[in-house]
Amino acid sequence: MKLQIGFIGLGTMGKGMVKNLLKNDYKVVCYNRTKEKGNDITHENFSMVDNPSEVCPGSAMIFTCVTNDEALNEILFEKNGIFQTLNSDNILVDSSTTSIEFTQKIYEECDKRYVSFFDAPITGSKLGAENGTLMFMYGGDKNLFEKCKKVFVAMGQRFVHCGKNTYGQRAKISLNLVQSLIMQSYYESVILALKNGVPLNAILEIFDNSGAKNVVASVKNPSLRNRDFSVNFKLELMRKDLHLADNEIKKLDLNLPLSKQISKVYDKAYDMGLGQEDFLATIKLLEKESGKEIRE
User: What is the DSSP string of the chain?
Assistant: First the structure.
């Protein structure tokens, strides 16, 4: 009998994750608020249900991958939510990026019900989700994770234990903070070079063969050259994650001067109407404010 996995969220990342579970011979029962998003998945082991609570019966593990605390609260705690049917036969895995406080709330509710829980946010972009090369950073019982690792291996290549529950989310918030800072500093420096008359090809070659070389730019530069802002990771979601980082910085009373400014950049870009584009679209704000487009 095929192992059944419940999955909630067929967004940018979730759809690729589900397809890889199916490729690895798992049965997948899925819920998405917009049911039509599952119409293009025609695998015989795939089915859609009408309510989140329906993914739990018969599922060894249930994965959630949604946009924010509010969406996760709806599918977990509200009418017809997962907690209506979740029990100790299930393992709950949240691969969303959400607040530490809400993750703690989920853990406490699971603990009351004797349900094992991992907060296991992901990184690797849409392409990584499609290719099964994601990295999971997880909080929870390491020994239990090893026992069910085969399911994660269907979707990812690297698995980092960050500590007890909520520590996966703590790590993910820091990761998205540094990615946003790297990208912003890189393209600000590109703008400086272009305004000073250095050709784009020259400065990108210099950066790519020096200490300025970085993975974020290596991934984004082909899209930059093509002016392609189609979504791998939405700007509005990065903005949300940076506000989560702001909350942690304030809570810990840290003086992180660059980090305190980056969410303001994303707020401005969001106000320009760029929220539904890839977070590479922050360069449009840079271009507007500098009067210089990043082009050949």
Answer: -PPEEEEE--STTHHHHHHHHHHTT-EEEEE-SSGGGGTT---TTEEE-SSGGGGSTT-SEEEE--SSHHHHHHHHHSTT-GGGT--TT-EEEE-S---HHHHHHHHHHHHHTT-EEEE--EESHHHHHHHT-EEEEEES-HHHHHHTHHHHHTTEEEEEEEESTTHHHHHHHHHHHHHHHHHHHHHHHHHHHHHTT--HHHHHHHHHTSTT--HHHHHHHHHHHHT----SSBHHHHHHHHHHHHHHHHHTT---HHHHHHHHHHHHHHHTT-TTSBGGGHHHHHHHHHT-----
Cβ atoms of residues 266 and 245 within 8 Å: no
Same domain, 244 and 156: no
Cα 107 from Cα 44, distance rounded (Å) = 33
Q: How many separate domains does the chain show?
A: 2
CATH number, domain with residue 47: 3.40.50.720
* Residues 139 and 274 occupy one common structural domain: no
Which domain does 125 fall in, by range?
Answer: 4-165
Output the domain CATH number for residue 286.
1.10.1040.10
Which candidate, 17, 268, 250, 279, places its Cα nearest to that of 135? Answer: 17
Can you tell me the distance from the alpha carbon of 143 to that of 254, in angstroms, rounded to the nearest whole number? 34
Please check whether residues 153 and 35 belong to one and the same domain.
Answer: yes
pLDDT in tens, 171-220: 999 999 999 999 999 999 999 999 999 999 999 999 999 999 999 999 99
pLDDT reading at 19 higher than 80: yes
